[in-house]
């Protein structure tokens, strides 16, 4: 599981500087000794907190909360997803999600969201003192909440990381029937390990909402001996759709030592090369923001020759049947 930032806990003794009141005072003072509160009587150094990314911060909150609750509580839903290193469509919230086998607490309290549902040993993964729902159980729990988009992003991430499809199917079969079941079944039907990112996963759901035909994922074209993989290929219409984000032109892990300008020029040349393939008629580039604006996106896709359904309004949220 993902490890937290170093957590410093207040002690009930009068050890100098380690009482809860002393550590809380340090959250209000500027300087190198400042602390950030991450849970009840749990703190991290402000310098560590400010240097960490959103996932690391959230993972730290989860560890701080779960250590206090103890057995039989387990991290679940988006909190378990963070611990397992999976993708989350909506990022990382402030609240920590916990599942208990039976009701012991209020449903929500002081930054906690509590869920009640039985679980067996196969549903739980452990890392030292911390317990979280297993990856298959986590995917199914999120899918049962009814948000197909979030469910597919998480399920694709799990499959990409090596979780077998059969494990997800088994977790769903063992879940109680009821509200959210159809959404969860649809999530597993759509889920595909070939989606290379959360944006690609979301795009597949949006395409389905818009009534597009099923695309080929990670289609490879060979141009002048160079193999080029594309995100989505619609062979009947001769249209390539690529998920384009600003990160590929700004983040070092995508630049590979190139400058942003060099990365942009390389991508432009790659698109020009794709358009020399006889079957490729159009290349459409879609950014993350486009996936949340179905009206303009539908217009662009129709203009490219894809049989895209008419949809009202630039911000209408599409609902799967």
Explain this structure.
This protein is α+β, with helices and mostly antiparallel strands and 321 residues long. It has a domain at 198-303: VSR Endonuclease (Endonuclease, Chain A, 3-Layer(aba) Sandwich). It is 37% helix and 19% strand. Strands 4-5-7-6 form a 4-stranded mixed sheet. A 4-stranded mixed sheet has the order 10-11-12-13. Strands 1-3-2 form a 3-stranded antiparallel sheet.
Would you kindly provide a brief summary of this structure?
Helices cover 37% and strands 19% of the residues.
> Spatial order of the strands in the main sheet?
4-5-7-6
CATH architecture of one domain: 3-Layer(aba) Sandwich
**How would a textbook summarize the main sheet?**
4 strands, mixed
Helix content: 25-40%
Helices, by number, come to 12
CATH class of one domain: Alpha Beta
Gap from first CA to last CA: 35 Å
What is the element string, with H for helices and E for strands? EHEEHHEHEEEEEHHHHHEEEHHEH
Q: How does the overall form come out from the CA principal axes? A: globular
What name does the CATH topology of one domain carry?
Endonuclease, Chain A
State the fourth-level CATH superfamily of one domain: VSR Endonuclease
C-alpha Rg (nearest Å): 23 Å
Structural class category: alpha+beta
Question: What is the oligomer described by this structure?
Answer: single chain
Count of DSSP strands: 13
**Poorly predicted ranges (pLDDT <50, ≥5 residues)?**
312-321
What's the rounded overall pLDDT mean? 88
Task: Give the SSE layout.
Layout (H helix, E strand, L loop, with lengths): L7 E2 L10 H6 L9 E5 L2 E4 H6 L2 H16 L4 E2 L1 H7 L12 E5 L7 E2 L2 E5 L7 E4 L2 E4 L1 H10 L3 H13 L4 H9 L7 H10 L7 H12 L6 E8 L2 E9 L4 E5 L8 H4 L4 H15 L7 E5 L7 H10 L18
Parallel strand pairs: 5-7, 12-13
Antiparallel strand pairs: 1-3, 2-3, 4-5, 6-7, 8-9, 10-11, 11-12
Helix pairs in contact: 4-5, 5-6, 5-7, 5-8, 6-8, 6-9, 7-8
